Amino acid sequence: MQQDAWPTLPAPTDPVVVWEQYLQGCCDRESQCRVRASAHDQTPQQREQVLLRRLSDTARESLEKHALSDTGASLQRQALELIRLRRRVLPDDYPGWNKPEVFLGAAALHRAVHALIEEYDRFRLQHDLLHDICSRWIGVAQATVQGSLTDSAPVFTLGQQMRNIAADGTISPAEFLRFACGYAEYEPLQLNRFQRAALAQGLHAGYLASRLFRKQNWLIDTDAFLTAALFKDVAWFIPGADEKSLSRGQHAEWSAGLMAQCEDLRIAVPRLIREHHECLDGSGLPLGLSAAALRRDSRLMSVLTRWSELFVRGEENNRVDGKADNSLAGPTPVLVSESLEGRWDPVWISRLLENLQLPRPEGLPHPSGEPRQNANPHWRLPRPHFIQKQGVPLPLRARRPNA
Asked: Which of 32, 145, 184, 252 is an S-S bond match for 199, by CB 3.0 to 4.6 Å?
């Protein structure tokens, strides 16, 4: 008689109903073979006790790692549900334990539980790595605000860590970007919401810049760019700083002034920080430069800044709505619509999407040397409020060629 086909092995994260069908299919198969009695410490029940002890250790660790509350809880819940399923479908007194199909079915389920625990351990290692980076970042930000940042070694150490993460093939961009948002939201309890947003967006911009500069430097000072990308919003750590006091892009001016106190940093760092909100149509803040006055690195910095803002905002909305979006294409529609207005450089948008392995959207304009028809030529040079109150004239810089 022809033997029935072996049931398809589900993935570890498949629903419990699929695993129940798999185990039931293993029980329904008829076989003339029998499994010999194994040693006591090699039975499925004994192997399950080892997995349960590992699960209890992960649950104890997750109480202290709030950033793992979403991902870690789902993995632990799936592992416990699979163990309960085994005890319900294949109890210890099940008469068919000597059948090889039943024995192999239980072994496959235990391998799935082991894979879930290994996945949690991988996220735990990422959490420890991110905890070290965020602690260093907060320390540098506080030292900058206090005026005690005289050595550039901590800044360059952070930049090297971001390069190492970008070169690590075991950490996908979606995992790191989403995990950085979760860590900034849950872990640093001493920070307010503006400082948490500055932390998340700084990590995002630094990570994306490190990925873009892995193969080539695009004729950009990568060290200065990475430093500016990490600490472009450090002004939010000024005591008493809020949205009103740093409105209309004034935090860019203040952040540039704070980072300029370290003489070891490149001269391009404060310039990039001052221009990280600039748009090609001249409507950016606080300088309001036109497209011809923006350098190549400033155009890239503005694209990374806008992408990180949209991504962090989308993650906050998904967290409030209880949605799970694993895609990185959320900021793309807004970037495309704004690039049609002439605000962002489509060249850097295309390179960023290609680096993130996202398809090029159809509506994204192709770069050309022709002037943008949708750009606003009637922009005014904005004057920050703290300059207006003091009556300080705002110097105009000479027009520079497009780099």
From this structure: 184
